[in-house]
Every structure is written in C-alpha cells, then in structure tokens.
Amino acid sequence: MNLRAILIPQLLLAAAPVLAQPAGLQKPAPVAVARPDADLLKAAAAEAPATLATLEQLVNVESGSYDTQGLVAIGNLLADALKARGATVERVKGKPGTRADIIVGRFTGTGRGRLLLLSHMDTVYTRGQLAETPWRVENGRAYGPGIADDKSGIAVILSTLRLLKPADYGQLTIAFNPDEEIGSPGSGDLITELARGQTAVLSFEPTLSTPAEGLVAGTSGTNTVTARIIGRAAHAGNAPEQGINALVEAAHVITATKDLDQGPGKRRFNWTQVEQEGDARNMIPDEVTLIGDLRETSDEGVRAFEAKLKQRLATPAVAGAKIDVTVKINRPAFTADAAGLKLIERARSIYQEAGGPDLFVVPRSGGGTDAAFAARAGVPVLEALGLPGFGYHSSADEYIEIAAIPRRLYLATRLIRELGR
Length: 421
Description:
Layout: H1 8-14, H2 38-59, H3 68-84, E1 88-92, E2 102-108, E3 114-120, H4 129-132, E4 136-138, E5 141-143, H5 151-163, E6 171-177, H6 188-195, E7 200-203, E8 207-208, E9 214-216, E10 218-219, E11 221-230, H7 246-257, E12 268-276, E13 287-296, H8 299-312, E14 322-331, E15 334-335, H9 338-353, E16 360-362, H10 371-375, E17 381-382, E18 388-390, E19 399-401, H11 405-420
Parallel strand pairs: 3-6, 3-7, 7-17, 8-18, 9-16
Antiparallel strand pairs: 1-2, 2-6, 4-5, 5-19, 10-15, 11-13, 11-14, 12-13, 18-19
Helix pairs in contact: 2-5, 2-11, 5-11, 9-11
C-alpha cells in the first residue's frame, strides 16, 4: 500500500475524542446497526482458518516491487487461485518497465451490480527480509513482511469469493497489480479503465489495528518535484571564482522553499534526494539535481504549486546559475464522492453488525492509493477493506490481527451482496 502514514497521525488524533476533541477531525456520527446475518457470520468464521493459510502462503513468496522473480511467482499463484474459484483469468501487460503481469479475474453472476475489487501483490521489502522476519503466529497475531500491506487484502478477497453466490453480483472483476508501492506507473491507467461503468470499486488496503480501525475518505496525490541546477565547473583551490557553484545554489533553493510545506492535513512538500554530477572534492560542482516529494489534494493544486515554485526560483541567488523546475504527477489524489461517503457509512454499520468497532474516518491522509486511479472513472470507491494490522512500511515486525478476519470477511461479503444484487 502506498498508505504510508495514511492512518497513523490521523488515527492517533481520531482515537482521542474521549480525552479531547482535536480541531478539524471529528468522530463520525453514530450509524444504525441492524441484526447480523447469523448464517454469514458462521460461514465467515468457518472460512477464517483458510484465510490465515492463504496469508501464510502469500507471505512466503517474497514480492518486492522490483523483484521480478517474486512478482511472477505470486502472480502465477494468484492466477491459479482465481481459476480454482471459477474465474476467467487474464494476464495484462502493464506499461514498459512493469516487472510482472497484472492479474485480472472475472466472474459472471445473475445479479445486477458490477463491482471491481482491488489489491496489490507487491511489497516495500527487498528479497531477504523474509529470512529476518519469517512467518509466525503468536498472541493472536500473524507476522511476516507484507502480511498487512497488502497480502491481507488479497487473502480477504480470495476468501470472500468463497462466501459469495452467483446471485450476489452481475459481474465481479478482481485486479491484482504488481507496482502499487512505487506509484502504479504500469497499472494505474488500466485500473481506471477497469473501473469505468462499475457500480462501485472496493479497494482492500489494510487499516491500522491500533489505536483504532478506520476508513479513508481522501488521500493526497503523490508527485515528484525536480530542480536541476546548472552552474560552471572550476578548480576549487586555484580559481573558484571562475566557477558557478551549483551546490551553493541548491542550498539556496532548499532554504527558499522550506515554507511551501503546509503541515498535516494540508500540502506536504519536502526535498528528499540530491544528485550531483562528479565527485571530485577539489572541483566547483557544475550540476546538482534536487528531488522532492509533493502531496497535493488535486491536479489543479499541483499545477498551482508548480507555478509558485517556478516564480519563487526565477532569480538564482548565485549569479549565472540556471534552475530548471519540473513537477510530475505520479498518482492522483483520491476524494470520495457523495456516493463514496455513503459507502463509508454503510461499511461502518455493517462492521458493527458483525461485532466490530465503529470505524473512524480519515478525511484526508498524506498517503496515496490505487483508489485514486479508480475514482478517475467517476464511480464510487471505498478504501481500506483489508485486515487491521501494524508495522507496515517500517522496521518493526509487520502483523495482522487474526481475530478480525471473520468480521472483515463479513463486511466484504455484505457490501458485495448489497451492491451486486
């Protein structure tokens, strides 16, 4: 998931209303809760051990975003799993550079609704992490690299398929992509196309287990900012004045733009990488490139930021230096529409019906997800239907809460039934 930091700061606040109400973030109003479907609860509980077994199988296939071998292996596993459940499976090539196929499964039922279920098979970990943090189960938790983000989403989808009947949907499309953690450069456009004409899209990124489980109403777009600074090389000892120091100008750029970050819940902007031509200590550097990370809430906001940045850097501090600024939109922002917000309310009700807690709602996070590509199709999207867990995108052991599996299966199945019938 590229839900890095998607819930941690906001949910730490969201869990606080019992102590103090944080400004700008409110606990959602209560929702009506119906009597649970006892048969479905029983079926979901019976399916939970199979979900855990699937998780173990998935975790034991290392599938980092740049691990072609692992991505191909897990793609084969998922294609077989979908076929075993009766799907027609298509392997779709992503854009050039995509390291494995996007696995698309399709089911045709007798209902009316058309639904797209999304999850991703890549993780942030490199090969060898599994040996350091192997699969294990202890104290009600299952551990392993990528288990929450987003192998939990895959496992929930595969088990939910076993709980559905043909009458529960008209058409069900499943998409597992191999590049979400790096911004879905090869699969983003396909996700938008798959979402067109759907009744709704359900995305199975994880939610935090602590301090509270939640849903996401909006994410920021992820964008790359590049400032290429051109100077002139010279001998650093004999004639530095003959040069134009690109590194000094780079320092000015950083200083002059540090106020463009607006803080939590607003625009986030930080320079994160520096690339320099040459590595000679005794030479005035003639080219330095700064690379920054920009999180914005709309494409229009990105372009407004770009214009402001170019204006801010129009006059270099070092005479003769030149600055070339570019801003690339990688993944768009996601904002739940009115229908999406209604899905959030329905999910909160169903989850409590299944015995789960009331889900908090994060209005806007600093992360990004494939929900944004799906929402570009103009259909309602619901995010964070994977398992609750912790430790993803960190050095801590990543885990999921085993006890939450039945209620998550119940939630996914009930949503599909309601939307699909």
